[in-house]
Amino acid sequence: GQNIDQPTEMTATEGAIVQINCTYQTSGFNGLFWYQQHAGEAPTFLSYNVLDGLEEKGRFSSFLSRSKGYSYLLLKELQMKDSASYLCAVLDSNYQLIWGAGTKLIIKP
Amino acid sequence: ETGVTQTPRHLVMGMTNKKSLKCEQHLGHNAMYWYKQSAKKPLELMFVYSLEERVENNSVPSRFSPECPNSSHLFLHLHTLQPEDSALYLCASSQSSGGSYNEQFFGPGTRLTVL
Fold first, then answer.
1. Which helix (H) or strand (E) holds A81?
2. What is the mean pLDDT of chain A?
3. DSSP summary character for residue A82
4. Res. B23: pLDDT tops 90
5. Rounded CA gap, A23 and A72, in Å?
6. CB neighbourhood size of A26 (10 A)
7. CB < 8 Å to A101, chain B
8. Residues 6+ apart with CB under 8 A from B115
9. Chain B nearest CA to A14, separation (Å)
10. Rounded distance, CA B92 to CA A42, Å?
């Protein structure tokens, strides 16, 4: 079966750095997405990785290792507004998006 | 209006009611999706309309029926729902072109409660 694993919840301190991990087992791979979802709001696109390595976009970076079936989202200089759920999703060989259950990130002052 | 809009934002219905959820995208996309989001569970894809062709998840009960009259509008018709159908229903759209895939843009969702 297809599976995406990410931690259910993480806590970090304002101004710090946090890494949210995602491991996947899917039938084929055509890319990995990270989305951010604030409580009661729509998920919004953060990043897309299809090749191995690190993609940096401001305070957020996303890393992919296809051989390990592993990705992480790195958030730097955390702000209170970063409190949200972060969803990992993999595009399989049929171009179907397989979603993780999301990681709820709590930022404390 | 911009992006993806959904109405209503909140809906409470009894098990014998019939209601419809509406989604509209203003992005010129050619694919639209219905998702169910339950607490602490992965997003569950219910239906996809891509290039006017419907693709569905065979595990979705028949009490949910989608309608896509054109590439900008998507409906989800609900009838004789069960309390376990209470969830956030998200609509999304994307631009689908052969051999490539673009990110999905989501609407704010309809919070559905079935009594």
1. none
2. 95
3. G
4. yes
5. 9
6. 19
7. 40-42
8. B12, B13, B14, B15, B83
9. 24
10. 9
